[in-house]
Write a structure and sequence with these properties.
Number of domains: 1
Oligomer: single chain
Order of helices and strands: HHHHHHHHH
Number of helices: 9
Shape: globular
Distance between the termini: 17 Å
Strand content: under 5%
Amino acid sequence: MDEARRVALYRLLGYGFTYPGADFVAQMRERVRPLQDGRSGDLPLSPLLQAVEALEGLPLPRLQAEHTRLFINNFPRLPAPPHESVYREGRLMGEASAELLALYGAWGLEAEPTMADHIGAELEFMAFLAALPAEAETLTARRAFLRDHLLAWAPAFAEDVEQAAELPFYRALAQLLRVFLRQEEARLLLTPR
């Protein structure tokens, strides 16, 4: 898989975990279809596209309610908090948030402090790194970010989403995240360079 497809996958996944607005389904369809031409390896893109197509007839408030239930507010327990600090430290805006704000700043980027460790922000940052020329510094940054941040919590997050989601869309999105991160781990961390 080439770097452009990797960038597109990170961005697709990051966008999929954002709060769904009026054009969310159209945006997801537009982002996933070009990746389905067989050049993305054995990633489970078909289930995601089918799940996106199934959202067509779903009222937007139902999709928004599912997003809220999974990621924002649910009593007595939030099934899948989309923040690294919650998974690694048991609280919002922990040390991971501060570390990520500094890291983004070192690359000339800014983030809302409350969203620095959100799954969407972290996936967008990996897309940013993947879009840069594959020089030693960039490759080192990709490996470190994958190892120290995404792999430290996102697989557990994806598993929680898969188990708690009522809509097939979120299950398919979480499955794609899990499989893609495993492939990235094998490519960046386990393959001898």
